[in-house]
Amino acid sequence: MPKRPSGRTAERTPRLANFSRTLIITLIGEGRMFSAEGGKGSLVFVFDTTWSMSNDLRQLKNGAEMILKTALEESNVIADFVFVPFHDPAVGPPTVTKDKEVLKAALQEIQVYGGGDCPEMSLGGIQMALNVSRPQSYIYVFTDATAFDHHLIGQVLDAVQRKQSQVVFVLTGHCNDLQKPTYKVYQQIAAASAGQVFTLNKTNVHKVLDFVRSSIIGRSVNLVSTVNLPGYNHTQKIPIDSSVNEVTVSVSGAKPQIRVVNPSGKELTGPPQLVATLDLSEILIVKVVEPEPGNWSITVGSSAEHSVKVVGLSNLTFSHGFSVLPPSSMAETSYRPLQVVSSNRIHCNHAIVSSSLNETIEQLLSKFWGFEEVPKKSIISEDESECEKHFLANTIRDKEGRFCVKLPLKELVDCLGGSYNLAKKRFINLEKRFKRNPNLKSKYIEFIREYAELGHLSVSNYNSSPVPRPAYYLCHHAVIRQESESTKLRVVFDGSASSTSGYSLNDILIVGPNVQDTLFSILMRARQYKYLLTGDK
């Protein structure tokens, strides 16, 4: 087999002196609230299929059986499996299945080849994995190269935020570019997704797979995440309550060290309470069994820059969001901060801790955007467009300064039948109401007189016309609102009353677009301010 080009450096020694490592602290508990499939995520493998990954692929194939068995029989956070291969330049196709045999078959069919170029199209593979997997998924990226397509970092980070998935990198090599964006994007994705960057020798991939198997049994809740400079005296106080059954501390970095002190001030030195689950020259993972409630002290270090993360797996779940106003629920928060806020006083990081979660984060985010977004003007229909053209072509201003426009007809007025008898019948019924309520009659007469004075109506000369013309008699009636503090009488003109032909006036008129703000958009703008004044005239 030909050797890998020298552009990509495979991990053959126990450590890389200049490699920037990642430190992770994880709290683990029960996570029973995710037992329903709606709250479960996907177990995702994103794999570099260039020929130098043949040893990694062999170990993944060997370890897949135990991982899939754990996911199906013991895990309450995995609903299905996803496999996404990537090469240069091809990415995919993805395999999405609930059948472990289908995934194992997909792994067996993969053939590693080529790979003369370094870096590779790894971010394209991650992006595809995020698109096809469920929210809150566990994504593991296996590669020995950095990211050629690092320009996709913005899209990948946005997808990570939307899906709330965790991305872990199992990196068994690089392209001598650890200070360039091609590598830095891995650190960015891991930090944004509460993931890790594991850098290790190719012969140790199977040991990381054992950690993968144990980490998917229950759902972890992220508590703390930070980045430290090289050094060994970085101490973090970790508050732990009675809901946490287990604490896992992970360090990925050159010469990693971990020191754990319980709330009583006693340092844990080994079993039975402190157990090392993975001890390599670049990775150290320890587990604290049944930690007592209180403030724990965890001191970590590495000879390279490293990140610190604390996550919890318990019978409580933690969610967070951002809002410029005090929200009443997670549905009213955003998964990302707003870029521009005019006020110096910001209400943000609204958090909810609950013992059950019936909706996925994807559903909550969908609700949030539906609630927060002010509706934009929709694409107008052909009739609405025709109505706008009619308005522009037929609007005039008379000598008194009033604007007048012809009715926008979509049918010939000849289709209207007789409407006189119906209008007369309704008017007689209205007169009967007037006899019972003289006060209503006086207010109605006052309204009609005002309409005439304003020029909204005038006496018709229809009967004096020598040539019969189509006509529509507009029915009208009174609506009384005693609770109104301004206008108690409202006169309704009924243009939907059918004539003898079955057509009404409204039937032959073009309906124009809504040119006024909707009540919803008005309320959305109003809620952006601390004080709101309303009035009526």
Automatic annotation (TrEMBL):
Where does it reside? Secreted
Q: Which PANTHER family match?
A: NG37, VON WILLEBRAND FACTOR A DOMAIN-CONTAINING PROTEIN 7
**Transmembrane segment boundaries:** none
For this UniProt entry, what's an example GO CC term? Answer: extracellular region
What the entry lists under Gene3D superfamilies is as follows:
von Willebrand factor, type A domain (3.40.50.410)
Q: Which organism is it from?
A: Pieris brassicae
**The Hemicentin/VWA7 galactose-binding domain, residue ranges:** 221-315
The record's listing under InterPro entries reads: GBD_Hemicentin/VWA7, HMCN1-like_VWA, VWA7, vWFA_dom_sf
- Mention any Pfam family matching this sequence: VWA_4
What is the designated name of this protein? VWFA domain-containing protein
Q: Which UniProt keywords apply?
A: Glycoprotein, Secreted, Signal
Using the UniProt record, give the first listed, main subcellular location. secreted
- Which positions fall inside the Hemicentin-1-like von Willebrand factor A domain? 42-202
